[in-house]
Design brief:
By secondary structure, the chain is α/β, with parallel strands linked by helices. Helix content is 29%, strand content 30%. It has one domain: Rossmann fold (3-Layer(aba) Sandwich).
Length: 184
């Protein structure tokens, strides 16, 4: 039987997401005192289009393009054996050296922190950045590891039983952040 989900609360619509990403882009530039040696790396899936959007926003107001990359963390996950018999590994694409860079990891939702731990392990296998920062569209709490974001679009208090769904137009056809629940 296929699990279906019902939207419980619309947390952010397209305009709200655009405002949150614009604020995060400004905060990233301010915290890093400009764009020198700055790079954005999106965690596959929805972190990738969010990183590209942040780079485009930074280019709009800073007049320079910040390099962006794509990070696949499939083989770094600590729950790999429980997720699938044959995990699907996608390509990591970081077309620049990480050495000495100020890297901002970008993801859609921060929950337990395990995805971010896996992303840092994967990133460190590719080089040694000067610093790694974290930007997330949504921080929903319930951390299991001592990881905190540097840049947050919205903090959403949730129960462990709720799901936070981030939809991006590039993958889902629309921009939205929703709290959803399973329909049985």
């Amino acid at each position: 039987m296929e699990t279906r989900f019902h939207t419980k609360v619309l947390v952010m619509d397209a305009a709200g997401m655009r405002r949150a990403l614009t604020r995060i882009a400004h905060e990233i530039v301010e915290a890093n005192k400009g764009t020198d040696n700055l790079a954005l790396v999106g965690i596959r899936r929805r972190g990738v289009p969010l990183a590209k959007r942040l780079a485009d926003l930074i280019a709009e107001f800073e007049g320079c393009q910040v390099p962006t990359g794509t990070l696949d963390i499939t083989l770094y996950r600590d729950d790999l054996t429980t997720r699938a018999q044959q995990p699907v590994v996608h390509k990591t694409e970081i077309p620049f050296s990480l050495q000495g860079m100020r890297v901002v990891l970008v993801d859609d939702v921060l929950f337990t922190g395990r995805t971010i731990r896996a992303a840092m392990d994967a990133l460190m296998d590719l080089g040694r950045p000067q610093v790694i920062q974290l930007a997330v569209l949504v921080d929903r709490g319930h951390r299991e590891l001592p990881i905190r974001p540097d840049f947050v679009g919205k903090n959403i208090p949730t129960s462990r039983h709720e799901l936070v769904n981030v939809e991006v137009a590039e993958l889902d056809g629309e921009d939205a952040v929703k709290i959803v629940e399973a329909v049985t």
